[in-house]
Structure formats: structure tokens, C-alpha cells
Amino acid sequence: MSDYGVTPAGFVVKPFSVILGDKLDQAKALFGSDIDLRSSSPLRKILDIAAAEDFELWKGLATGYYANFVSTATGDALNLLGNDLGLARGYQQASGQITFTLSNEDKGRTYVVPVGTLVETKAPVAAGDPPVLRFRTLASATLSGASSDSKTASVDAAAVVAGRSGNIARSTIAQINPIYAAHYMALGTATIAASNDAPFAHGDELLDDETYRAALLRLPRTLFTREAVTGAVLNIDGVRDCIVNDPAGGVDVSLSIFSQFIFDRRRFGQARSLGTPYFFDVLVAPKAGYRWETIGGVPGIADTVADAVRTMRPVGIFPNIRLADQVAVGVRASVTIRPGVDAVATAAALKAAVEGRVSGLGLGGSVLASQVLRDLLNVPGVADVQRLHLRRYPPTFGSIVFGDREAFTPAVIEADLGANLMLSPTEIATFRYDSRLVDLQIGDR
Fold first, then answer.
1. What is the DSSP letter of 414?
2. Cα–Cα distances in Å, from 120 out to 82, 160, 273, 391?
3. Rounded distance, CA 261 to CA 305, Å?
4. Claim to verify: residue 163 and residue 107 sit in the same structural domain
5. Of 223, 280, 341, 374, which cross-links 246 as Cys (Cβ 3.0–4.6 Å)?
6. How far apart are CA 422 and CA 412, in angstroms?
């Protein structure tokens, strides 16, 4: 079997040096071993050009070979594979910035506009007016009446519905969604106006290859199975991770009763009574800023998951959609920075490093102190990190909490020096920049 071309390891491109070497050997066999093949000879120039053309042909063959697979295809080839699977490449969510302005505030009070705040355009007044378009903020904003500068803040936002409709003109955003504000923002006498000082863009651009490829790889290739339901749920915008649990759908060797079954006399699992509905569990962890319930005219994650599963489930089988337990994660440590390094910028970079680590974890993913320590040490300008303690809230799964959130004393919510935070399969780690669990003491040498 040839070492190049289609091999058990995939398509191997023949290197340029090998192609040129073969042509040089052919020239010697045809014209004699004393033929002038120095780099300055005319024949060598011709062979170099021919070898370069053959090398481009080999690369084209490799591209054609890998265009047959979803995991390696790109561009138009990936579009064709997606069309065959029934999922065309979609559009991106239009993005831009929203400016919030505070007025009629209470003296000394600080107002927080949370991540995922819904803002919207004006409602149609007459027939033919454009419909209401809604957008979701991607970061939190803090407003107060301490100064004129602190009464305004701008944050990034993205359209709830992907596509060209999100490419709105400047000054199109009219307000915060009233229903959302009533549920999640206790403003009192204060009012917060929302506007966009610049147009939103990128809604007419197609999804990039990697995002589209991930959606295609998650498409179910089978009938109603755990894998098929998992793939359908993970393809929903706003879902971070999910676990599908079908208690009676197959053999679960982790059950204590497993070894007590006599397989030649009875079925594994209890028989379901005819005429009674059967439920399976779908544990869903949403991304930050996405609401679980439908509010303000925007479908929540729970309803969207139910709609996606409804098209797959057989008659008489229903999903029990549950929200995963959100565990807020923080860190306490003493950080030494090098002389001349900006402490404020370093603090933001340290929090970003922890957020990157936590946001990459799935359901049941434990937060390892060694990995967090490595991430902090890799931040530019950090010389040393000592006395690192991980924190979590609530302290333990199923605990009953009274009072303000994250109000436990550090002794209750803080792990030992260098200890890991082990999460249960129904928990998922989250991180917030403004969390009380974050305590980074930064100083120079």
C-alpha cells in the first residue's frame, strides 16, 4: 500500500521534496546520470515548476477527500453535507452595544442591570409597522447616582432571533422589556432607559464553520434514543449542557439491584402498565443570560427544550425537564504581581481566567484547584499565587439557605487550602465577576 494518498490514517499529501526527488530521478534515468540538475540549470527550473504544480494537485485531492466528512469539511462542502442531513447553515445573531441611562434614582443606591436583560424596539402602532425585536445583553452593568459618568453604562448585546432582522439602525432600541424589569429588576422610583447609539451588525452573516460543524455533529442519527434527545437539546441556543436519564430505557449496571435479577426468568426493569404515561428526565444547564422560563415574549429554555423533544418522542412518552443546580464558584488567594504592572487590569484578567476555566465545565464537572492555580499563574504580570482557596455557593447540594444569596461565612463555603470543589452530576459551576465569593488580594513585591 502506498504511503501517500488514501491510507488507513486518512489522506496523506505527498511532500514537495518527494515529488521533486522523483522527477529528478526520472530525468537522470531518461537523460543520463550526468545531466545538469543544479538549481541554476533550465531543466531543474522546469522540474521545480512541474513539481510545484503536482504538489498543488495533491493538496486539491486532500481537500476533496476531507470534504466528504462533516468533521473535516469546510465552506461550501460543509454546506452540502448539512443540506443532506436536513440542517442548513444558519445566520449569526446581530450584535452591538446597548447604553443604559439611570434617572430618578434613590440616593446612595446602586442598580445592577444583570446579564441577559431583555431590551426591545418600539411596539407597532399601525398596520405595516415593523414588529417588536428583542435583544439580550451579554454583560452586566452597574449604575448609580454618585456622578454623571456612573449614571450611564454601555454593554454588548445580541439579538434573540438570529438573522438579518437584528441589523437595526441606531436609536432603534426603545426600552427594557417591562415584564422582564418587573420580574428581575426592583427599581422602585428609578427608571433605566435603554438605547443603541450605533447600528447592530453581522446578522446577515452565516455561522462560521466550527459552530455549524458542531451543530451537525450533534444531529441525531438514530431514532428515539438518549443520544438523539441529547443532541437535539444541545443544538438549542442557550443550552450549555444536558443529561438525559431514561430509568427504564436500558441496563444500568450502577443500580444496586442489578446483580439480583435473574435474566432468564424476567425482564430487566419493571413492566409499564398499559395506558399510563411514561416520563424520562432531561436535566438542562442554561448559559449565562438565558432565562429558564418564558418571559417578555421571549421563549425560555424550558419551553424551547420541550418543543424540540416533542418532535422526537413517541406517543405516551413525555419529558420531565429539570433545571440543573447552579453552583456559584469563587476563589480567594493572595496574588503577587511584578513591579509596574497595573493591579486593576490584572484583577480583571485573573477573573477572566477563572471564568474561562469554569465556563468550560459541563454538568458534574469538578473545579480543580491545580488547574485554577495554573490559570492564575499564566496571567501576564503575575509573579506568584499563594493561599488559594476555592469557594462555592450554596455550600452543599440540597442545603436550605435563608437570607441574602452568597451570605454564608467563608468558613462554610470555602474549601481547604488547595482542595478541589467536587460537584454532583446534577450541578454545574458558574462564575460572576461581581460575586462576593471572589477575593483576590493583589500586591507587588
1. B
2. 33, 10, 49, 37
3. 35
4. yes
5. 280
6. 15
User: Which of 323, 349, 371 delimits the end of a domain?
Assistant: 323
Per-residue pLDDT for 315 more than 50?
yes
Counting beta carbons within 10 angstroms of the beta carbon of residue 291, is it exposed (0 to 12), middle (13 to 18) or buried (19 or more)? buried
Q: Is the model's pLDDT at 1 over the cut of 50? A: no
Name the pTM for this structure.
Answer: 0.64
Domain count, the chain: 4
Owning domain of residue 154: 95-195
Please determine, for residue 177, whether its predicted confidence score (pLDDT) is greater than 70: yes
Residue 53's pLDDT band (boundaries 50, 70, 90)? very high
**What confidence tier does 409 reach under pLDDT thresholds 50, 70, 90?**
very low
Give the confidence band of 84 by pLDDT, cuts at 50, 70, 90.
confident
Kindly report the CATH number assigned to the domain that includes residue 263: 3.30.300
Q: Is the pLDDT of residue 161 over 80?
A: yes
Distance CA 389, CA 354 (A): 13
CA dihedral 343, 346, 347, 348 (to 10 degrees): 130
3-class DSSP state of 343: helix
Alpha helices (H) along 266-368? 301-310, 343-359
Contact 408, 393 (CB under 8 A): yes
